[in-house]
Amino acid sequence: GNGSGSSGKVLGKVVAIGLSHNTASVDVREKLSVPEPEWNDAAAALVRESDSILEAAVLSTCNRFEVYLCCDDIFRGTLEATAFLSKRSGVPLSQLRAVLFVLPEDEAVWHLLRVSAGLDSLVVGEGQILSQVRRCFEVSTSDGGSARKILSRLLNVAVSAGRRVRSETDIAKGAVSISSAAVELAALKAPPVLNLQLRDTRVAII
């Protein structure tokens, strides 16, 4: 790969590649999942094994897997990254392409801002994803990270935007996790459906 090295190509174009609860089954998400201690290794391998990828950052959670790339050629970088992910996960390329999203430039930026704000989450407004984006920023800009000028700036802005959304809007009011949403729904439904208060009902968690 050429990294950000001697070719003189320091800046590039951003692309986001990934899948989420919206696009892929749990089985596929688990195969692509990368534990946090391995985020930088995966990102470094992407840069090292590519001729087009200059920077990389991995964001992997239970509900999503995303890589943010800075490429000097988005088309080529996307092909190289997709092949890398297929090889690493064992998911055939044809199957992977069917569930991956590829978002170039402004679309990639907008997507990350939506993710950080909690707008792309299973429960809109949940707070955990902001912490995960913050960790992505911290990890990918650390000594072993592969985020440089472009991606470090993008991730930093995303964290700031996520904080502002939560402090300046009502998005985080009410249920902000799947479990709390389930409890709120049960409390709402129990009296009319069962003629009981939630505290008097038996609940099975599946």
TrEMBL record:
Source lineage: Eukaryota, Rhodophyta, Bangiophyceae, Porphyridiales, Porphyridiaceae
Alphabetized Pfam families for the sequence: GlutR_N
Annotated protein name in UniProt: Glutamyl-tRNA reductase N-terminal domain-containing protein
Pathway involvement of the protein, from the record: Porphyrin-containing compound metabolism
Gene3D superfamilies for this protein: Glutamyl-tRNA reductase, N-terminal domain
Top-level taxon of the source organism: Eukaryota
Species assigned in the record: Erythrolobus madagascarensis
Domain Glutamyl-tRNA reductase N-terminal intervals: 17-169
GO molecular function: glutamyl-tRNA reductase activity; NADP binding
Keywords: NADP, Oxidoreductase, Porphyrin biosynthesis
